[in-house]
Structures are given as structure tokens and as C-alpha cells.
Amino acid sequence: MSRLKGDTIPGLILVIIGLLFLIPSIGFGIMPTTSDGVLGAGFFPAVISIGVIIAGAGYFIKGLRENGAVEYFYMDEEQKGNLKPFFITIAATLIFMLLWHVIDFFIATTIFCLFINWIYKRSWKFNILFTGIFVAGIYLAFTVFLKIQFDL
Q: Do residues 6 and 63 lie in contact, with contact meaning Cβ atoms separated by under 8 Å?
């Protein structure tokens, strides 16, 4: 039973979650079906799902190799100190999803990034630089590569 401690169970859960999202995304269509070459609606979810499956398989194999040496439910002082930022991140993500429907996506994303970097005590220089690059990257990835237009 000790082989099922550590990364084996979380790895298996990641594989299952990846499969649960991969199967419907294939049904949405992955490859372009129109003359303009726009990728299908399932392309991006399929890529992310495959990434989750690969990561999960890696963790599962790592857990088997470590033979249960890692214990997940033991918390040291550093981990206990991380609980507050963790729960604030979850709350901020939920607020971001609600805010996204009220204001422009890119404004909501900018506010979210600035807040998260502030919570994790990043310098203002890093915070502003990271946020600018992150928001610009999302804009380029979705509008240029995937040809998905956001309401501006």
C-alpha cells in the first residue's frame, strides 16, 4: 500500500481529469473545417487536456519510483504560512471570473495579475512587467494564432 502514497494518487487523478476534458473537446472538433483555416473549438481544450494527462502520468510514475516516500498530509510551518495566500488566490480567481462578465476581459485579467503578484509579494517592477507580457501574450495567442476576437 505504501506505493500508493506520494505522487501516485494525485497523478492518477490528473490523468482522469485530463481524460474527462479531452473526450468532449474532441467532439467539438480540433482541426480546421472552414476555408479560413480557423482551428476547431476543441483544439485548445484538447492541447491543455493532453498536457494534464502527460503531467499526471509523470507524477504517477514518479510516485511509483519513490515508493511512497512523500507524504502529502504532513504540513510544516512554511506550508501552513502558504494557506492564506492559497485561499486568497482561489477567491481572487472566482472574483476574476465574475468580473470578466462585467468588464472587458483584458482589464479584468490585468487587475487579476496585478493583485495576485501583490499577494505573492512580487516587486512592483516585476508585477507590472509580468502583467504586461502576460496580457499581451493572451491577446496575441487568441487573436492572432487562434483567431478568437474578444469584445473590446
A: yes
C-alpha triplet 120, 124, 129: angle, nearest 5°: 100
In angstroms, what CA-CA distances link 100 with 3, 108, 119? 43, 6, 20
Those residues with Cβ within 8 angstroms of residue 11's Cβ, 6 or more apart along the chain or in another chain: 56, 57, 58, 59, 60, 61, 62, 63
Q: What is the pLDDT of residues 38-90, one digit of tens each?
A: 777 788 888 999 999 999 999 899 888 887 666 666 677 887 888 899 999 99
- CB–CB of 15/63 below 8 Å? no
Element (H, E) at 134: helix 124-139
C-beta separation of 26 from 46 below 8 A: yes
